[in-house]
Amino acid sequence: MARKRNEELNAATAQAIKAVARQLMAEEGTNGLSVRGIAKVLDITPPAIYHYFASLDELTTALIVDSFNGLADALEAAAEHSTAPTAGGKLMDVILAYRHWAVDNPIGFQLIYGNPIPGYVAPQDVTVPAVVRTFVVSVSFIEEALQTGELVPAAPYNQIPPVVAARLNELIAAGSYPIAPISFYLAMILWTQMHGVIYLEIFNHIQFNVGDVPIFYEAQIRNMLITMGFRPLT
Description:
mainly alpha, Arc Repressor Mutant, subunit A, Tetracycline Repressor, domain 2
């Protein structure tokens, strides 16, 4: 019983440390993250932090993994609860959920897709599985649409630049992913389109110009999917 209680206290303290870390990043940016700063807010000594995280890098990795998993959870939930009758429609719901998560979690979004933290190198064996989760949902619907004929890639989206195709094939082989290179390629194009609008929104650069960002975002993504060759998009 005592051991279980200690484990619960340790888990709660680790969560508190991560919560303060996010708070500091919200106030000062990712460069403001420090063990000393976290300890000061929690009113504990800096060495006490190392009982829960061996280094600032390990804490940063935990925050990154949490963010990727939080995003993946949101996308998987959107896919599960989508009532759209087509793969394209379900993909649209997932892409809308992507923006919702980013806007609701701007610090987490900036941590995983924003400015690199000086000196930090993410351990791929820990972070990549979480990253993959965020891509699987979208790519699976693209793959499904290709298989059913709902998506017939239109030019120029049906032509992958050779150097890009080579890299995509390397990644597919390395991860043993059961997808076609064209699915991966189209997902990457959508990803860049999504991030362009989301970043402008998070940093308040687009609201004045478009008036209603959610409507603008949905229209841009819908147009992109139709241009790619999705039919019908419902």
